[in-house]
Design brief:
By secondary structure, the chain is an alpha/beta fold. Helix content is about 45%, strand content about 20%. The strands form two sheets. Strands 2-1-3-4 form a four-stranded parallel β-sheet, with helices on both faces.
Length: about 220
């Protein structure tokens, strides 16, 4: 019997969900695990502000409540919105992609860098890193200053990722975390260009979920 990992895109942009499906498709090769990507239809088109992040907490929790068939959940937004609320209402493990992505990065290099969507996201991310007590390992975080939709569809997004990636390397980053689920389709090409590990945090969270399931 396959164990189901439900990956939730908390924004309502189906293109982002489609990108997640593509970047996670090979994970279904693991015997005994099935990855299902779903869109939170009640969510904003992109989670770009603290208000956007807070607005999806209740809808996320309600969705988790309805999925008694899930063996694990992944919240595929780099702000990890609603993670505490969701963990409080289910006995199944709930993984956030910022937490999972950063923890994975810490195992790959002494200092990590983060590529954010917008300047407004950086403060929100730093509050979470402070909660995780890992700010001393952060080389820096630089924003692309684009929308979530542009991160998944923008023609100039990849070149901007390269520019910011090299800036973070100059700041001392030995590994880079993509600070938005919409950037997932660029990971392999960006890693080849920068020649340091580039972490897709959604992949990192799914890896952790699979490991948790298989260990049990």
């Amino acid at each position: 019997m396959s164990r189901r990992i439900v990956v939730i895109n908390p924004n309502s942009n189906q293109t982002v969900t489609d990108g997640l499906k593509k970047s996670l498709s090979h994970f279904n090769q693991f015997e005994g695990c099935f990855i299902e990507c779903v869109t939170l239809e009640e969510g904003p088109f992109g989670i770009e502000t603290q208000l956007d992040s807070d607005s999806v907490i209740v809808p996320l929790a309600n969705l988790v409540k309805t999925r008694s068939d899930a063996d694990a959940f992944v919240i595929a937004c780099y702000s990890d919105p609603g993670i505490d609320a969701c963990r409080s209402i289910t006995s199944q493990p709930v993984f956030g992609i910022q937490e999972s992505g950063v923890l994975t990065a810490l195992s790959r290099a002494e200092l990590f860098g983060v590529i954010a969507i917008a300047d407004a996201s950086v403060e929100r991310h730093r509050r979470y890193l402070s909660r995780m007590q890992v700010l001393n390992r952060l080389a820096g975080e630089i924003a692309l200053n684009i929308s979530v939709d542009e991160s998944a569809n923008g023609a100039e997004t990849y070149q901007r990722l390269v520019e910011v990636g090299y800036q973070l390397i100059e700041m001392g980053a030995g590994v880079i975390v993509l600070g938005c689920a919409g950037m997932s389709r660029h990971r392999l090409e960006l890693e080849a260009e920068l020649r340091i590990p580039v972490i897709d945090p959604t992949q990192a969270a799914v890896c952790t979920a699979i490991g948790t399931i298989l260990a049990n």
